[in-house]
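Fold this sequence, please.
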Amino acid sequence: MVILMFKLPKAAFLVLLATFLFQPKIILADSLPINSLCSIQTLEHPQVGKVIVWQHNFDGVFDLAMAPETKAELLPIVRLSFDGSRDPGCHFPAIAAIKGGDWGWHVAWGSSAKQSLMVARIDGEAWVSSPPKKLASQTADAVAFSEKDGLLMLNYHLLSDSATLTQMMVSNDEGRNWDAVDLHQ
């Protein structure tokens, strides 16, 4: 048995330790490890089991991805965002997803790299995404979907230097179009 010892500066050691201890890790289909510095959304799907949304490293570019977890096969990863950042770190601090009828999923995310709130629809059979739609031009936090009586609602906080503003958008056509709701009358 060989034990290798080397000396690291204290700051480097703490960064390595924090990366190892606090980085969420999920195994897709027992073969694809997901390491993400951001939040990871895990959802249940009746046909494929778990569906996972996370920040993924696409050849050095960090973008948002989605994939089903299956035991039989690994379905392709759907890239939800494009032109992400090359800087390591969390670029999607807020992610929300909800089942969209019998056709797929709605996913919304705040992007700190693009200073925006984005939303997309994902086909649950073909596993392809609609082009992401920008709903706000500020970083969003606390993003959450809800649904009631055929209305899809998206609640979020817009972050600025001076305040946090609670916002809501609604869609009555399964997320194709969105309207702002004035919560501050």
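The chain is about 5% helix and 50% strand. The CA atoms of residues 122 and 128 lie 6 Å apart.
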